[in-house]
Amino acid sequence: MRFRTLKQLAELCNAEGKTIAEIMLADQSQESGKSADYVFEKMRAYYQIMKDAVAKGLTEDTTSRSGLTGKDAQRVASYLTTTEASLGEEACKAMAYALAVSEVNASMGRIIATPTAGSCGIIPGVFISSQQRFGWDDDHMVNGLLSAGAIGYVIANNSFVSGAEGGCQAEVGSAIGMAAGALVELRGGTPEQAMHAVGLALKNTLGLICDPVGGLVEIPCIVRNGFGAVNAMAAADMALAGVRSVIPSDEVVQVMYEVGTAMPEKHRETAKGGLAQTPTGQQIMKELNLGKKR
Amino acid sequence: MRFKDVFSIIGPSMIGPSSSHTAGAVRLGRVARQLLGELPSKAEITLYGSFADTYKGHGTDLALIGGLLDFETDDPRIPTAAEEAESLGVEIAFRTSKDKADHPNTVRFRISSAGAEVVMTGASIGGGNVEIVNVNDFDVKFTAVYPTLVISHHDRPGMIADITTLLGRNQINIGFMDLDRKGRDREAMTVIETDAALPDTIVQELLQLSMITTIRKVDLAERGD
Question: Does this complex have an ipTM over 0.90?
Fold first, then answer.
């Protein structure tokens, strides 16, 4: 591949006047020695498997082998038909589809890992509900998968995509970043806008860490509030639909305590770690200290 | 780059529930089987780290067995792989180890058939991707994303040149190479990832080179690819 970073990817798009999907298709074809048609058709087959998984999760018994989970997608889908969702119909549908694919996975059904099986619901949830909403054809969606793949390729090679290596948000967070970036391109946004969506989404999935740039309650706190509002409505909708928190909420609160205290000091509002210590975070802090407020 | 192409991110098509614990495990089993060259009659499988802690819930054991049966990651028979193996007469034993492995999802296979034995250690590194880190006590690293040749040979001057010349003459491009030896002038292993799959005729030609003991082709391309 000709790109290792998201910036290089956006630059390639601009230099060649191509979308992220077109760059990915060309590079994949070159790298694999297979024709662009072959790559495109393989991705189309994958998209069909995603659709099949959504349909299966919404209609069949998805009780997992352990018996712990199953049929939450159906709860949310049926809630949607009887109640006005807090998220609105479209977002709630995306959520139901994402649950559906994830439940098919948990019940040892066939899914596409995107990027992992643990995070396999997010891209189908966003893609298939958006396709229905905006009336896009399958070719457009396959292009979206190629853009998502390009973004995931960068994340995977520079960070982690597995929970065992990087924690759950390495899986789910990566998928959200991929879905967000791809959705921007599917909706006609520029490569730069797509890359910003990736950054915004990933910043919000850095788990419990508190990493305000320069110690100010601004970056990333403000956008996390925006995401938080949407997450709150999603939680309300799931609960109203009858989805249960299998781990009781009080125990979740205790876990927040445990994880929080186990975190190194640098990730607890000291501005000594996380986003605050990225090159840009440090630069901002330096400029603020010099009194050059922007 | 640990992840080499778009289908290592979008994909694989697989049977759930975990790409590390199921799809990666299937692929590790397939590589081990291809290194042996045939269906094993006996398999001792040792799990480390997170694999050891969580393999039962994830069906990792079934996935590893499915791989030994040369199933692909989305084979619907994975949930019943243990029964399939039993009906084929494959004897399988699982054990867990508390020893520290380099990667949290590590597995070691000792598999054998009437004529051969292979010991392979590999890790499932996320998203269904794998890394083989040791074959028969040789530290070699490969991902099986590309068609791969695993060549056991004697360590002597010119050996690598002979192999690569032969491949070059047949228009086979080498993407990645790794080798390890047990000591100067002793047994060695060379791993070569190539851009295109290798016809058996070239493998036969390679075997004519003196000092090569065995060649195994590892190729995880999905059927129909």
Answer: no
